[in-house]
Amino acid sequence: MPFKIDMHVHTCYSKDGLTTPRDLINQLRKIGLNGAAITDHDTIEGVEKMLKSHNDDLLIIPGIETSTKSGHILGINITTPIPKGLDIKEAIERIHDAGGIAIAAHPQAPFKDCVKLNSKIIDLGLDAIEVVNSSFFPFLPLIYLSKKFAVRYRMPQTAGSDSHIPETIGLAYTIIENDEASVDDVIEAIRKGLTIPFGKGIPLMLRIKKIWNLSANSSTC
Ligand SMILES: [Zn+2]
Ligand SMILES: [Zn+2]
Asked: How far does the centroid of ligand 2 lie from the alpha carbon of residue 11, in Å?
């Protein structure tokens, strides 16, 4: 059985996230995913909480989604906060110094704060491109562009749901051809480009539900 991880999930420790750590664990078990990377906006508070809880049947990968001057970057396998507002190159260097890998989050997405896919980003030190993000809109054209770019520049590819509510967790995930995998195995597979990005877009009703829930509830854990 391939190993499936949602590489981009927000918890209620993100200002715009409503998923509690308990919701996240329950949802991963319900849908049969092997794990998820916790990538809250500019904080690792949720990561610290999650790593203290014991859920040995699931792989919880610590991470962050850092807001750089040039867009959002996922820092995966880090337990050190990366300050927001850094120059993108410095943010990537700090992620590497912290032992992690840096992934361009939802590149080229018109309604999001993101890096644009052009040759200038190749020398920044990025380790991978998130070619499938369930919040992409329009979904298929953005996947097409991202994959084309990744293939052209031989960049490893990942997928994640970018969930802010429990119901959308696992809509996209990264597949690794191992029965079992540790965090180091996942990082190694991404670095070597041995991953298969997979997933679908967030259905319109769940996009509306996220906006509705966020306006009705403040994000508290
Ligand atoms: Zn983002
Ligand atoms: Zn995100």
From this structure: 10
- The 8-class DSSP code of residue 84 comes to T
Ligand 2 geometric centre to CA of 94 (Å) = 19
Helix (H, G, I), strand (E, B) or coil at 209: helix
CA–centroid distance, residue 103 to ligand 1 (Å):
11
Q: Which domains does the chain have, with CATH numbers?
A: 3-216 (3.20.20.140)
User: Average pLDDT, stretch 19-27?
Assistant: 95
pLDDT at residue 219, rounded to an integer: 65
Determine which of 3-7, 50-54, 199-203 has the lowest per-residue pLDDT on average.
Answer: 50-54
- What residues flank ion ligand 2 with Cβ within 5 A? 65, 162
CA 169 / ligand 2 centre spacing (Å): 12
The tokens for 148 are: 């084309």
pTM, whole model, 2 decimals? 0.96
- How many CB atoms within 10 Å of residue 212? 11
Look up residue 199 and give its amino acid: G
